[in-house]
Prior knowledge:
Layout: H1 2-24, E1 27-30, E2 34-40, E3 43-48, E4 52-55, E5 61-67, E6 71-81, E7 87-98, H2 101-106, H3 111-127, H4 147-161, E8 166-178, H5 180-219, H6 226-241
Antiparallel strand pairs: 1-4, 2-3, 2-5, 6-7, 7-8
Amino acid sequence: MEALVVLVLGGGALAFGLFLLYCLGGFFIVQPRTQVVVLRFGKYQHTITQEGIRYVFPLGRKLYRLTSQVMSVDLPRLMVLEANGNPIEVSAVCLFQVREAKRAVLEVDDFKSYLTLLATAVVKNVCSHYPYESQDPHAPCLKKENAQVSEHLARELAELVAPAGIQILEVRLNDLTYAPEIAQSMLMRQQAMAMVDARRTIVEGAVQTVTDAARRMQQSGIGLSPGHAEALTSNLMIVLCSGERVSTVLPIELSPRQPGGSL
């Protein structure tokens, strides 16, 4: 009888010890800037945001840990059509932060994959609204990484990922080039446009120089006949606008020889 009592007491003590050890497994540590979503038997209980040692009874418990730090995701290079219909290759980087861990865990299967897919779609859509480059320095374009383009990317993506508890901090285009099949043609076009702009600048400067020269000659009392003024203007424009060294010819009129006199 005494042996039975000892056996029962020993078994009870062992069971209590195992139960106590099982209960001790409910302690866990919450790291700084970390959110812990607690589920019990598949039902949401609460979200722990305070750092330190916390306790949740382990029976039926499941913990999801999500960081609240700023994270980044690199979007792979993809081909899109810009506003003028030219194919370009673009990649981007997105900075985001998980604000509501409950939504990030329960509303979507994998919030990072969810964000990557939506960000890729947003980049394609936004790039189709802007040209690769613009002649107007005040007009937004993709090449200059205008603030309006970045704000458009962040605003549109933020609206899509809001149900997942994600806050978009910034979206920036990381790499931007013309597609290989048109890269050579667009390079020639850029070179031609640069040459035209350079010639335009040269001509505008030449016209200003000739105008100033004519005005100063008039102020100095140097008078020219219409023919000489036209020749001077023509020669100055040739000298100033030509890309090579040129030789100019100025007409010189000599007074006719007088009988018995000198020139």
